[in-house]
Amino acid sequence: MKKIKKFILVFVVLMVINLVGCNSLNSKVEKYTIDKSGEQSLNNIENIIIEGYYLNINIFVSDKDTLSYKLSGDVNLNLTNNIEDKINIISYVKENDLMITLNKDSDLKEYNSTNSLSLDIEIPKAYYKNLSISTSYSNIRVMGITVNELVIDSNEGSMYIENSTSNNLVAILDRVDFISDKVITSKSYMEMTKGNISLKDFNGNLEIYSREAEIDIQLGESNDDIEIWNEKGEIDLYLPKEATFKLDARTKNGYVKCEFPIPINEISSNEGLKGVVFDDSSSVIINNNEGNIKIMKKN
After folding, report:
1. What is the pLDDT of residues 124-135, one digit of tens each?
2. Could you report the per-residue pLDDT of 149-164, keeping only the tens digit for each?
């Protein structure tokens, strides 16, 4: 009797192993190429809203009258999956908003862990209203656009903006490297939990609130108001040689260095400087809890 029980147990174990092996063979993972595209009219569209995750998102302008988008790249998928159900890009209009997003069944964390998928969006050059981008674990590039308002909400990844203009720029960032080159705004507001901010040839009033960030800003030729509040990290600010401004810069754990001639007013120490450079037509206010502050002349 014991031999029979032992035989049955061994038989069951072998059957389980065999089933697992068969399932593994049936669920073989292979590479698939994604290539999906579409177009949308922007008639009466006030807001373009783009949502994505685990993607490379490229946004640029074109001479066409309609917005076009393309999702392309390679992903690893199980042969038992329906690729159309799993990964798809959709667009729809809701009132005056154009939404461009992945379908709800898309799980790119599983299928696109190497960020090989790209979403390319071409916006008509004549469109000048509002653009909103919301992403997680994505790399974003925005090039050559001119809009009324640009809103960015990004969690983990990178953000690069080049040769673009926006009356109002808003960026809410968490563990993101934010880089810009030749950006013009009337006003900008940025919040960052952790990451790096690097702005080159930046024009416009600027507010930054960050918990932990390395900040490097080179202003353009405009004379704008700058306000930075940072908990931890180095802050380097480069201003035009002819800049005129009222300065109030303070750090609790670090030093403040200023290359501009400044008659000291109220505060004069390694930890803080307050005064006026020629006139107070603009202001530079910097508070850093832990880290150095350097205010330098741009070459």
Report:
1. 999 999 999 999
2. 999 999 999 999 999 9
Cα 186 to Cα 224: distance, rounded to the nearest angstrom: 9
Q: What is d(CA 187, CA 208) in angstroms, rounded to the nearest whole number? A: 11
Q: How many CB atoms lie within 10 A of CB 161?
A: 25
100 contacts 50 by C-beta, under 8 angstroms: yes
> What type of residue is 79?
L
- Which pTM was predicted? 0.85
